[in-house]
TrEMBL record:
It comes from Chenopodium quinoa (Quinoa). This is Uncharacterized protein. CDD domains: SANT (cd00167). It is found in: Nucleus. Residues 9-65, 66-116 form the HTH myb-type domain. Gene3D superfamilies: Homeodomain-like. The lineage of its organism: Eukaryota, Viridiplantae, Streptophyta, Embryophyta, Tracheophyta.
Amino acid sequence: MGRAPCCDKNGLKKGPWTPEEDQKLIDYIQKHGYGNWRTLPKNAGLQRCGKSCRLRWTNYLRPDIKRGRFSFEEEETIIQLHSILGNKWSAIAARLPGRTDNEIKNYWNTHIRKRLLRMGIDPVTHSPRLDLLDLSSLLNNSSFYNNTSQSSQMNMSRLLGMQPMVNPDLLKLATSLLSNQRQNLQDYQGNNDFTSNAQMQNNFNPMVQTNATRPCVPYFDEAQLMEPNFEQYPTSISNFDAQNFDQWQSSGLPMSDGLVNIQPTNFGYYGSDQTFMDPSLSDNSTFQSNISSHSNFMSYAPSVMSTPSSSPTHLNSGSNSTTYVNSSGTEDEPESYSSDMIKFEIPDFLDVNQFLLAQTN
DNA sequence: AAATAAGACAACCGCTCTGCT
DNA sequence: CAGCAGAGCGGTTGTCTTATT
């Protein structure tokens, strides 16, 4: 049985604040400071509950609040932090001076979330929505969760369409991760009625957890992000390079959720364009860490703001199967950036046209 | 011009956490 | 340790504004 709402008491006003009420609250706090919110309204002569006063002050009247549109950088920061922290709005707000958790939450729900959805990106997982590409069923049908590591490797490489290029070590690592995740899945399913597709993608889908489709965000431990001294960690994810990754690993700091980024050079949230040598290859060919440019990995740039302006949509055109999706659809938001373009690399064996046809029928 | 729908955001509700007794 | 109150958080609702028909 919960406590009765503080505003249940008779005579306490609810709803929008009037300028007079605002002024009373401001005057009182300027004189006496804030503190005991329960007694504050009475002392300030307000017919409001303390909770309402606190909310009004912290979300609206506080002098250090920055009003107005979110800037490009702020939006970028919100997306990046949300990919790490999830709906921890207060933690996100702590990294955005002058913005309140409520404001960020509202902005997320009304702007960013919708934009990501339009782009085919799951706003919860920050990964491409597999329910759109129906990759999950494809994974199941291809015996992706096969028991033998060898066949898992084969399936994975086949799925990713990169068999000739992949580093076997990476594949091995991914396979062992798969194995762990499969175990987790079994454990989890044993205890839960587990039906949410989004959760499924978030927690167990190997396509999501490998760097191929993850938004290339280093896996900060949440507690570290909560630390006030955030500067010691790379605030710009794209600056988090291989060296940082090595330091990160050697520091012994935990990877959250048991997840590991397979390719440390691909930490750029935008998808960096660095290359590294694949020691497993006898010749001098390089393995593009920016998978989208060479292999058939599917990659995407959640940070769509940085992409150049509009290009025509073309699907599955050409051997490289580079697919541009103008996610903005019919609605072009005037704010912040010039285009909502994202770039997908679709494996050859996925017939996107067929898929789109099926979706429209 | 009026009615309606959609969008945006302020405010509320219920729950949890924390500190005090 | 339990109970209580204050404070904070995240999800949801309500209200106002703007766009569309």
